[in-house]
Design brief:
There is one protein chain. The chain contains 17 helices and eight strands. With about 450 residues, the chain is of the alpha/beta class. It has two domains: about 100 residues, no CATH class; about 300 residues, TIM Barrel, CATH 3.20.20. The structure holds flavin-adenine dinucleotide. The site of flavin-adenine dinucleotide has 25 residues, from strand 4, helix 13 and strand 7.
Length: about 450
């Protein structure tokens, strides 16, 4: 399934919002409503079974296939990413998509709209509303302005400032992001986005500057007041131990009353990840706060000290799966289910095997009368949409089987927002990530082509 803003044309053409809900939520009513009101090419032949991609528009299917072909062709990929990187790093007005209308007209509909939420409040609202009508429980919205990842030697010694404008603009960007999400949604926070002085404090394991603490108080209190949540992204190892420490301080302060307002991010590719999670469990148990964990594999393998990371992909996979299993079954070594602290688990990733394993275990535990921690799943907008679709379909069948919507998996889409220029580095990373997952991409393209053939009866 491809879940991007191009699907919006379905929504725009539909006469009644209530009918849209029915389109996405009720598979049985879907085909008739779709054929009547929106995408004529989605009409299903009675002999053909709808696939899990049935919610997607044909325009979107085609775009996913085209982008998939680019990502899986070494030649097209090489030149495509070289162009994107050049634009992302250029200071020239001609290569600035916010200033050059022609460049923007090329990048925005084909790439930006595929991966990003929008450039302004109206575009973003349309995207978020649309995703929710599709059955997503919520979204994670991230303000795209960032300083690019850098080695610590590259951090020069910036003079300390009384009032750091980078922190002010980072705070304002995050507050603006909070303004655009709803209760239950998340805002993703990246500490290094607060500028070089904050990055330097992280790299040198210092305490956060008072201005950053004040900014985080504003952001956390705002999020709590409106019922939204925050997660703190994991970054390079040069920053991460301090990010963990600052995040624990926030969780201690705000994750009271058995709820995780703030979640930390754990990178399972690190050899130290099990030890880190054990220490966090011990600390939350000792101090009585809820541990919010977003579990990822880790995104910086290309730039990290390799010896810190598991030697093989299989070891990273095993580590990710074992942490998810131990947290869900409250069987982390050193703990019993009785003294296990309250946790909330967010599984972020595109690996279908890990997702299926965790979802199955969670369902089995519930059926056995156990009380596993709540679990949420998140994929990036424009990526692994077939997996998001599979999770949504599991929700459809699980709710139908039990008549209890609470057993459906809680599925989220995570996306950046900002001007096309501000999102360029993010887009380069997405392109690279898609290419490094080329085999998965090939199978996704295969599934999409099959769905397209089904629709055109070929
Ligand atoms: C919603 C969301 C939020 C995210 N937030 C963050 C974040 O805050 N911080 C962050 O670092 N990443 C983050 N990521 C990215 C994530 O860490 C992964 O890079 C990405 O999701 C791809 O991994 P995967 O779990 O989807 O599965 P796969 O594609 O199956 O796994 C790929 C991953 O396996 C690991 N790997 C690959 N080859 C090897 C090898 N030879 N040896 C050891 N390990 C290997 C790497 O971590 C690689 O990224 C996020 C991803 C999502 C979907």
């Amino acid at each position: 399934m491809n879940i991007t803003k191009h699907n919006l044309f379905v929504r725009k053409n539909a006469p009644l919002p209530g009918q849209i809900q029915a389109i996405w939520r009720s598979p049985r009513r879907q085909s008739s409503l779709v054929s009547r009101h929106s995408d004529a090419s989605s009409v299903e032949s009675p002999k053909q079974q709808p696939s899990q991609l049935h919610r997607i528009s044909t325009v979107n299917l085609v775009r996913n296939i085209v982008l998939g072909k680019v990502f899986t062709s070494p030649f097209l990929f090489k030149y495509g990413v070289a162009c994107l990187s050049k634009i992302a790093n250029s200071k020239s007005a001609i290569l600035d998509p916010d200033k050059n209308a022609l460049l923007r007209a090329l990048i925005k509909p084909m790439i930006y709209d595929h991966f990003c939420a929008g450039t302004n409040k109206l575009e973003i609202k349309r995207t978020l509303d649309y995703l929710k009508t599709m059955g997503f429980k919520g979204v994670i919205l991230i303000y795209s302005k960032e300083i690019p990842a850098m080695p610590v030697e590259a951090l020069n010694d910036p003079e300390p400032l009384i009032q750091d404008e980078d922190i002010d603009s980072w705070r304002d960007g995050n507050v603006k992001t909070l303004d655009m999400v709803e209760p239950g949604d998340y805002v993703g926070i990246k500490f290094t986005g607060a500028g070089p002085r904050v990055a330097q404090a992280l790299a040198q394991d210092r305490d956060p500057p008072q201005q950053l603490l004040d900014a985080m108080s504003i952001i956390c209190e705002r999020a709590a007041a409106q019922g939204s949540r925050l997660w703190i992204d994991a970054e390079q190892q040069v920053f991460q131990p301090t990010i963990d420490r600052w995040t624990i301080d926030l969780m201690r302060r705000y994750n009271t009353h058995n709820q995780a307002l703030v979640s930390t991010t754990l990178q399972a590719y690190l050899k130290s990840s099990r030890t880190t999670v054990k220490k966090m469990l011990q600390q939350s148990h000792r101090e009585g706060w809820t541990l919010g964990i977003k579990l990822v594999r880790g995104a910086y393998i290309g730039s990290e000290t390799r010896s810190l990371i598991h030697d093989t992909k299989t070891q990273t996979d095993d580590c990710y799966n074992s942490i998810a299993t131990d947290l869900l079954s409250k069987s982390f070594p050193g703990f019993t289910p009785q003294d296990f602290p309250p946790i909330e688990l967010f599984l972020a990733g595109h690996n279908s095997e890990s997702i299926r394993k965790a979802y199955t275990l969670h369902q089995n535990l519930l059926q056995n009368g156990d009380t596993p921690p709540p679990i949420k799943f998140g994929q990036l907008l424009g990526m692994a949409d077939d997996i998001s679709g599979e999770l949504l379909a599991m929700g459809d069948s699980s709710s139908q089987a039990t008549e209890n919507p609470a057993t459906a998996p809680m599925v989220y889409k995570c996306m950046n927002w900002g001007s096309v220029r501000e999102c360029m580095h993010y887009l380069v990373r997405r392109a690279t990530e898609n290419q490094s997952a080329a085999s998965r991409m090939e199978s996704t393209v295969g599934v999409m082509q099959k769905e397209l053939r089904r629709r055109i009866g070929f």
